[in-house]
Design a protein that fits this description.
mainly alpha; Arc Repressor Mutant, subunit A; two-stranded antiparallel ribbon
């Protein structure tokens, strides 16, 4: 069987290539694709508990905590005690984190545009819809 025709392998190859390209572009900003994803999530969701954040970014809690700690050490996120649960805390993006997002966003958007270059918009929307269906079927 030729793996190049297996949907799962095609998706894996595509994801790896995108991840590697993003990693190269983010190097100059001293963040990883995982850290970028967390910052994007925190920019869209103000004050998120680690457990909820793990669900959103599709990581387990230990990896989420590790990524958040690295971002905290860089001054890109901060922790605040939860008002409703004193045993928990919320993670917030800092002004420095927001500034970094603003710098990096055009670069990541350019990568996305490069990935779909030559594909009509209606086909891109169809691809998104189909991939969403595949995701929900699993």
């Amino acid at each position: 069987m030729d793996f190049n025709h297996v949907l799962g392998f095609i998706l894996y190859k595509t994801q790896r290539k995108l991840q590697n390209a993003l990693h190269q572009q983010l190097k100059e900003f001293d963040i990883t694709p995982e850290q970028w994803g967390m910052l994007r999530c925190l920019a869209e969701n103000e004050g998120v508990a680690p457990t909820e954040l793990a669900e959103i970014i599709l990581k387990d809690k230990p990896n989420t905590t590790r990524i958040a700690e690295k971002l905290k050490n860089k001054g890109l996120v901060t922790y605040q005690a939860s008002m409703t649960d004193k045993r928990s805390y919320l993670i917030f993006i800092t002004e420095k984190g927001t500034e970094l997002l603003e710098q990096v966003l055009p670069i990541t958007m350019s990568l996305n545009q490069q990935a779909v270059k030559g594909i009509p918009q209606e086909k891109i929307e169809e691809l998104k819809s189909l991939l969403s269906k595949v995701y929900h079927n699993i």
